[in-house]
Fold:
Amino acid sequence: MDIASLFQGIASLSWMGFLAVLVVAIVRASRKQSTKGMGTLIIGVLVFALVMTTVGAGLVFIQPNERGVVVSPYSFRAPEGYLKETLKPGLHWVVPGENVQIYSIARQTYTMSAASSEGQLQGDDSIRARTKDGQVVFIDASVIFKIDPTKVVQLHIDWQSRYEDELVRPTTRGIIRDVASQYGIEEIVSSQRASLEKAITASLNDKLSENNLILVDFVLRDIHFSEEYAAAVETKQIAEQQAQQAKFVVEQKKQEAEQARQVAQGKADAAVIAAQGEAEARLIQAEAEAQALEQINVAIQSNPDLLVYLYINKLSPNVEVMLLPNDAPFLFPLPNTDAAANGGQ
Structure:
């Protein structure tokens, strides 16, 4: 209980005491009993009750997160009908008959959402907007703001307690619709969502500042579409996924084909290398044989009997031959004497 309420409670008790003393005095007087001193007591209690009532009626306690605007009917105190200075946190006394309008300067949140349990209003309170390509979107948003402590009096003059319903709500909805109309629906739901939120925040900040409010933050809670467009988007996404899958299959087949080509190329390269090696080996062998023949030819030319020697050396040692004269180059086999002898027998 604050001190203002305490004084008001004391004032109420004082009036009850005054009535009690007055009743006692009247009863004693009706019974012709002594009422000596009762008049003084009645006056004292009355004065005390009046003082407590006056003090209690004029005391106002302002919380740390509040400011008070004094509305006064007394022209000597407020020629314009209000005091230009707000009441700061703490205990204040105003002239009885003046009214103090208290405003919270703490942060406040105004939410507009399709979910009935989230926003200030029951039911679907999302903002319906149309994009530059003619599509309809539904936007859920929250505005976090506070009253400018230095402009509470002007806010009271302009809006009083209607600033939420008649300023914050319609201003926010209008700005969201205006900004959304500058974007295509694909931009809003993908690459330009942050840009959309930033543009709304800038416009809303300027508008609230003009009306003695401070924008703390703007939250773009959700963006959803009509059922028809949502179905179209889902169909498109399915088609894109299928296309991506088909593309993946094509790439996989290309990779498999490329792998097979590389394997075949490797085999072909290996065959070429093997053939080249074999050809080189045969060439080397041919060159060696040619060189050997060349050397043999040189040797035969320098020693003609060498050919006869080699020829004889190649014959089987079991073959019996007959030698002709030295100058005859022919060799004739001798008759098989063993066969003849067996036949003769």
